[in-house]
Amino acid sequence: METSKPSPIPLCEPNLNGREKQYMAEAVDSNWLSGGSFLRRFEQQLTDYTGAAHAIGVSNGTSALQVALTLAGVEKGDLVLVPDLTFVATANAVKYLGADPVMIDIDAATWLLDLDLMLDFLENHTYQNHGGCFHRENHRRIKAIVPVHLLGNVCEMGRLLAIAKQFALTVVEDAACSLGSFKGGKHSGTFGLLGTMSFNSNKIITTAGGGAILTNDDILAKRARHLITQAKSHATEYIHDSLGFNFRLVNPLAAMGCAQMEQLPAFVQVKKNAAAFYEQQLAQCNVTFQQLTPGTDSNYWHSAMLTDNSRGLLTALTTEQIETRPLWTPIHELPVFREDLYVSRTNASSTISRRGIMLPCSTSISAGQLQRVCHAIRKHLN
User: Fold this and answer.
1) Which of 61, 178, 180, 351 has the smallest number of CB atoms closer than 10 Å to its CB?
2) Is it true that domain 264-381 has CATH number 3.90.1150.10?
3) Paired strand residues for 198
4) CA 81 to CA 144: how far, in whole Å?
5) Which of 358, 10, 330 is nearest to 152 (CA)?
6) How far apart are CA 166 and CA 122, in angstroms?
7) Are 197 and 212 in contact (CB under 8 A)?
8) Are 83 and 150 in contact (CB under 8 A)?
9) Which residues have C-beta within 8 Å of that of residue 173, sequence separation ≥ 6?
10) Would you say the pTM of this structure is higher than 0.90?
């Protein structure tokens, strides 16, 4: 007699059980597609939730970073400090502007930018001239820092901002993972001059593809809206005063976002419950979880852990219809970035990447699915 396979458990699938279809149909029926009332509503929901003065909807999280770095004054030939362990989009956005990333290794406990290492680099390998910070070896300007709030854990922004001020660096937060994460009551992405978000299909809320730029600066917000609409400067004539982008978030996808935002508090709670369940159920296993920075209220966008032979465990779970993924490959190991500067003492990013595994944590995950994942992990680790 043939044994039936267990049903698959997805890694992190979208949850479209709200008013998504209703709102998207309304957007289509309105005949306002490029812009419209749902886009304005979605942006207002984001500002209300995050506390940012402005939220500008864009086509995806990568375009949000590209525009934010442009607004921050990053130019061709500049250097930008980024964490070495992050999704490649963080470093790609720097390259799009003709600048280059300086990869800073991560803290082995929090998996975030190692601020001690970054400060040591700035103190011992740079000089300041005419209000700017320059790399001593090649005399290139270091213009900005892009902290990434990895998996929902928020960087030590108070200290980071102080370092940035000392060295005249602009802070652009990559908050792609951290909608719903707060530090000291302040939302991620609202500490620096600009913050960026992603609403890709695996994020805590989704617009299928989409992102946003957050800022408290009225002038930068106006400039961002101008740039993402091809920098068109005349109401009827095709006059474009800058090199612009076609990066607007369209109205039907913003409508999906409106429905998703209505469910965000519930989504965050599911993520928190899943993370707590994994930590409790796997406490006796030889695994390690990400350590939150003090004062962080994480959205736990993605549950992840470290273990020896993570690739073997990934393969074993696949045979049981449980989808998992490794953590990202460190930026300095990718071919495009191997000629760029990597600052490290212990190469923690490679160790974390090699030992890391992302666990199922959809906002629709059931208690039974969580139990099945933990049972399978305990079985294979033991």
Assistant:
1) 351
2) yes
3) 211
4) 6
5) 358
6) 10
7) yes
8) yes
9) 146, 147, 149, 155, 157, 188, 189, 190, 191, 192, 194, 195, 196
10) yes
CB neighbour class for 216 (10 Å; exposed up to 12, middle 13-18, buried from 19):
middle
Cα–Cα distances (Å) from 347 to 14, 106, 107, 191, in that order, read: 34, 8, 10, 28
- Segments making up each domain of the chain, as ranges: 20-263, 264-381
Strand 194-198 and strand 170-174: the pairing is parallel
The b-or-e profile of 102-137 (16+ CB within 10 A means b, else e) is bbbbbbeebbbbbbebbbebbeeebeeeeeebbbee
With the C-alpha atoms ordered 257, 263, 265, 266, is the resulting torsion angle positive or negative?
A: negative
The predicted-structure confidence for 244-268, as pLDDT tens digits, reads as follows 999 999 999 999 999 999 999 999 9
Mean pLDDT of the chain: 96
Single-letter amino acid code for the residue at 3: T
Q: Do the beta carbons of residue 195 and residue 144 sit within 8 Å?
A: no
pLDDT of residue 12: 97
In this structure, the chain runs to a length of: 382
Q: What is the pLDDT of residue 3?
A: 61
End-to-end Cα spacing for the chain: 30
Range list of H helices, 17-156: 20-30, 37-50, 61-71, 89-96, 115-125
